[in-house]
Amino acid sequence: MFSPEEILTQSIAKGTAKTQRSLFTKFLLGMIGGALIGISFLANVRVSASIPASLGSVATLVGATVFPIGLVMICLAGGELATGNMMTISTAMYAKKISIGKYVVNLLEITVANLVGAILVAYFFGHFVGLTHVGVFKTTLITMAQSKVTASFWQSFVSGIGCNWLVGLAVWMSFGAKDAAGKILGVWFPTMIFVAAGFQHSIANCFLIPAAVFEGGATWGQFISNLIPVYLGNIVGGAIIVGAIYYLSFKVKATK
After folding, report:
1. What are the tens digits of pLDDT across the range 11-67?
2. 3-state class of 201 per DSSP?
């Protein structure tokens, strides 16, 4: 593993580079990122729905175990994910390599692209192909979505903080690993924990809730009402609890 100071240096460099890509590249990679998260959540629904209700804890654990594959693919193969960027690009902003405006613009650009990718997966792979359209899979999907949209604003906000604290740590640890196996392990366990705990991830919800909308189990209004507090909470978790605290802790040694 690299030291925390070395990880911070990498994060600043990677965060700066992310803002310098063309809009076209950011949109393509953002669509890929959203789609991969959507596919991971689809896998979560499929495997957990296949487990009897009497084994609810096992279903949650199995679903949480498969979900990190999406973030692993993004980190290793390439992709842009708004929640990861909330941490990574924030370190470049704190180091004054980019402005606050560039930070906000990048998040908006990648979020829109993630949203498009996630909704395409929800419609074509979930609804059109039928993987979330029938039987226990539809029931599980709608139950999951309703558990998100029925939470209050502040519950969703705080849940979003917990989620992106762990996702930010997953990305941070992937920077610290020196080989692919280390990166996979670094990403896998924090991501698995947030899913098993039930924390809310704004981009994952961009798949889950629209998928439920397509199946008649939620509304677009509920999606928007959920997305806003979860997204804001994700920013706090990634940019402050991970990005700011680690920047303040390790910047002196990293500079030296």
Report:
1. 999 999 999 999 999 999 999 999 999 999 999 999 999 888 778 789 899 999 999
2. coil
